[in-house]
Amino acid sequence: MSNSNKYNNPFQATLTGIKSLFKKGERIGTLSPSDTLSGKKVLITGASSGLGLAVAKDIARLGGEVIMVVRSGIPEKGEEVRRESGSSKITMLYVDLSDFDSINVLVEKIKTEVGPLDVVICNAGVVASTARKTKTGLEEMFMVNYLSSYYFLRLMLKNKLIKEGQPEASRIIVVDSESHRDPAAYNWDAFGTFTPHTMGKTVALYGYYKLLLITFTYELSRRVNRDGFTHSVFSLCPGPVNSNIAREAPPLFQPLIKLVFGIFFRSPEKASEPVVYLAASKSLEGKSFEYLFLMQQKEIDEKAMDPANGKKLWMLSEQLIAQLGYGLN
Ligand SMILES: NC(=O)c1ccc[n+]([C@@H]2O[C@H](COP(=O)([O-])OP(=O)(O)OC[C@H]3O[C@@H](n4cnc5c(N)ncnc54)[C@H](OP(=O)(O)O)[C@@H]3O)[C@@H](O)[C@H]2O)c1
User: Which residues are registered as beta bridge partners of 45?
Assistant: First the structure.
């Protein structure tokens, strides 16, 4: 399944991440004092930890009203954001992204308690030590790292909960990973099928789900803007982040992981820069798609830009969700 073997196992993935930090590239830009989020409603998933928590603080500092969508950390993580940013415009909403019913409840809450959003950031992700079945029988990493974003964003758009253009397009930002380049091909025949795996295969699967995620993100940018420009759809890889992403690695390796992450990986506070730039920079107005690796503009993998793959993924995802009894139309 692997293309380059750069993310084939946890050790290679760590090494690839560290090496990537030393590659030189041109910065897309820097936020200017006029790039505020004042008056903007910004939702972020996975805001209880790592990158998402750091982004929530930055958004609050830039004056945005922050909707922290979390599975844990209510209310203490919201209080932390309030305390460190000095902002009181913080709302917390619960979701378990491995559960369609929970996503339905979240969307209803957004409808009744929050209203249409200016920026939506799909950030939550998981690296599971082993394959776990969700309530509907899907593999948890497949659901959390890919299908939940598809389902959530489609529901949000259907319910007009992401503002449509005029005077400024709203922004949808999806946190991806450079590991999306690693899989050699899509495995359409096994789409949505539960396949048992252990930690050895987890990293390769993670890259595959990030490939699905970025293929969907690119297809979304095509579809939402088909009849006129209404939404900027952005994606990024934050580079290696010293977060809790490796929390399920075997206990024996935890001290080593903490050491390596602490020395070589970027702090969530630093790693948040591309997410916040994509959310707030006025220089990106009018762009329908952009992908950043750290602060550098990059093309995404060719396969993910192919409209035939985008269309196929869109259709298979819709069919799978319908088979599981959750409608989108
Ligand atoms: N760390 C890296 O080196 C790196 C590199 C490239 C891309 N990324 C991406 O960056 C994003 C953020 O990850 P991170 O590094 O900040 O890791 P993290 O510290 O583990 O944060 C992951 C977040 O996702 C949430 N989450 C996981 N499963 C969930 C579920 N079923 N329902 C709702 N929320 C769920 C977690 O909530 P709980 O706290 O409740 O578990 C947590 O808030 C992910 O998309 C990841 O793939 C990370």
Answer: 69
Q: Using most ligand atoms within 8 A of CB, pick from 44, 80, 241 the residue to mutate for ligand 1.
A: 241
Catalytic residue among 7, 146, 151, 206: 206
Would you say residue 122 lies in a domain?
A: yes
pTM of the full structure: 0.96
Q: What is the mean pLDDT of residues 31-38?
A: 96
Question: Residue 22: which residues within 8 A CB-CB, separation 6 or more?
Answer: none
Average pLDDT value for the chain: 94
- CATH at 187: 3.40.50.720
Helices (H), the chain: 10-20, 50-61, 76-85, 100-109, 140-142, 148-158, 199-224, 254-264, 268-271, 273-280, 302-305, 307-323
Q: Does the pLDDT at position 167 exceed 80?
A: no
Query: Where residue 1 falls among pLDDT bands split at 50, 70, 90?
Result: very low
Token code pair at residue 216: 């969907």
- Residue 12's contacts (CB-CB under 8 Å, 6 or more residues apart) are 5, 6, 203
Task: Provide the domain limits for residue 50.
Answer: 10-323
181 close to 301: Cβ distance less than 8 angstroms = yes
Q: Does residue 328 fall inside a structural domain?
A: no
206: annotated active-site residue: yes
What are 238-275's pLDDT values in tens digits? 999 999 999 998 899 899 999 999 999 999 999 999 99
Residue 2 maps to a domain = no
Q: Kind of pairing, strands 296-297 and 289-293?
A: antiparallel
Out of 44, 71, 72, 103, mutate this one to test ligand 1's pocket (max ligand atoms within 8 Å of CB): namely: 71
Would you say residue 1 lies in a domain? Answer: no
**How many CA atoms lie less than 13 Å away from 80 in the CB half-sphere?**
16
**Total domain count for the chain?**
1
